[in-house]
Each structure stands twice: as structure tokens, then as C-alpha cells.
Specification:
The protein is an all-alpha fold. The protein is rod-shaped. The longest helix has about 110 residues, at about 5-110. About 90% of the residues lie in helices and about 0% in strands. The protein starts with a helix and ends in an 8-residue tail after the last helix.
Amino acid sequence: MLTALDIFVLISGTFSVLSVLPLTYLAVRSVRDTKDLRRIQHELADLITETKEISEEVHELQHEIQSDQRDAKADGEQTLRTVEQVSETVEQVSSAVEQVSETVTAEAAAPRPDDNR
């Protein structure tokens, strides 16, 4: 016959075995979640590395663009100076041509002493 102690041991053993099943399920789920978390961490680390590389490339491109802009500005300023110099030279030549033209016109209009003979 079973005594009260035997029944208590039987019930508590059965309860212990039954309570282990959900704990086992939770442990297995925890291991799977841990693996997923590690995979996500590795992917995140890769993304961060790629982002850093892209950021460095963007920084280099910005530096090149700024350098090109400075060069273009300097070239534009040089072109402006050249255009101004050419403009001044053209004005001087134009003025000289006008003077020569006026002199030639004045000389052509003036009577020559050789023509009176």
C-alpha cells in the first residue's frame, strides 16, 4: 500500500518532470534566439563598416569637389583678367586707329604744296 509520503513523492516527481518540459522548450528557444541575435549583430557590424567606408568615400569626393571648385574659380578669375586685358588692348588699338584715321583724313583734306604747281 502507498503511504502519504509515497503519494507526495510521486506527485512532486511528476510535477518536477512536467515542469522541466517548458523549461527545456524555453532553453532551446533561448539558444535559437541567441544565434539569431549573433547573426544580426554580425550584419549590423558589417553595415557599420560599409557605412564608414562610404562615409570616407563621400568625404574624399567632397574634398575633390571643393578642390575642383577652387581651381574653377581661379581659372574663371584668370579668364576675367585676360578678358579685361584684351578689352583694354582693343580699346587702345581702336583709339590709335581713330587717331591714325583722323590724321589720314586731315592730311588728305589739306592741300598739298606740290599740287599747286
